Automatic annotation (TrEMBL):
One of its GO terms (molecular function) is ATP hydrolysis activity. It comes from Flaviflexus ciconiae. It is an enzyme of class 7 (translocase). This is ABC-type quaternary amine transporter. Pfam families: ABC_tran. Residues 2-237 form the ABC transporter domain. The keyword Aminoacyl-tRNA synthetase does not apply. The keyword Transit peptide does not apply.
Amino acid sequence: MIRFQEVGKTYPDGTIAVENFSYEVREGRIVALVGASGSGKTTLLRMVNRMVEPTSGSVWVDGRNVSDVDRVQLRRSIGYVLQAGGLLPHRTIIDNVATVPLLNGEPKKKARRAAEELLERVGLEVGMGKRYPAQLSGGQQQRVGVARALAADPKVLLMDEPFGAVDPIVRKELQVELRRLQAELGKTVILVTHDVDEAFNVGHDVVLLAKGGEIVQSGTPEEILSSPKDQYVRQFIGADRAERQFTIEEINGQRLIFDGDGRPAGILQQ
Ligand SMILES: Nc1ncnc2c1ncn2[C@@H]1O[C@H](COP(=O)(O)OP(=O)(O)OP(=O)(O)O)[C@@H](O)[C@H]1O
């Protein structure tokens, strides 16, 4: 449903951010792009909604080359979640969530009612809608960011380090909630992260990138964890650390991860 076809991006100053990247994101999946800083993750993500134009190749969403779609229309039809929520500070939470539907011409009352429902969906109380972003915790702001991205009911959600600014416990909670929400709503999600644990926790598929957007390995978390392709991947995913010598077993219909000492280390969500 989202297809990167031999895309490349060389920025005007000559920096080659992405050289020749091809990948297909299947509908209704969460794909995590993970890699070191500067490997081209954000550049790739932004090519989907034309915040970055490729200098070679093409990106296709639902069978349409995005370069043929009006930029404003495209951006409003694709949800985008940024680190720290990217909320408008002088607007209330409810108005932040309702921004795109209002821009799309929805009547104010209807847009606000839909925004309230979305707040509940992402686990916030409706009463919070009256507050301003600065009156919310980092984790709450992130939830609002997700609600806002969902407001126009997009089929595709792009998330750039969405949980980068929150503490590890809240981060874990938000990761679990994202999986729940995605299962409920069936969106196709591309998530950019430099945190390999996050990629494995959240992604149905994981794409491990090196400089220039080179795909080092891609596959399900199980595939990568159980057979890292080479020493680089082993190092990147920490497979040499005892706690990362994972095995995966299915117990009572759930896939559990066990670490090198045989302790359960987590659950892979369906
Ligand atoms: N507007 C720009 N002009 C010039 N070079 C850029 C621009 N944006 C990004 N780059 C360069 O392109 C390369 C890839 O950047 P990108 O932001 O896509 O990587 P990333 O993997 O998302 O990195 P990070 O994890 O640090 O956000 C980097 O070397 C970066 O410095």
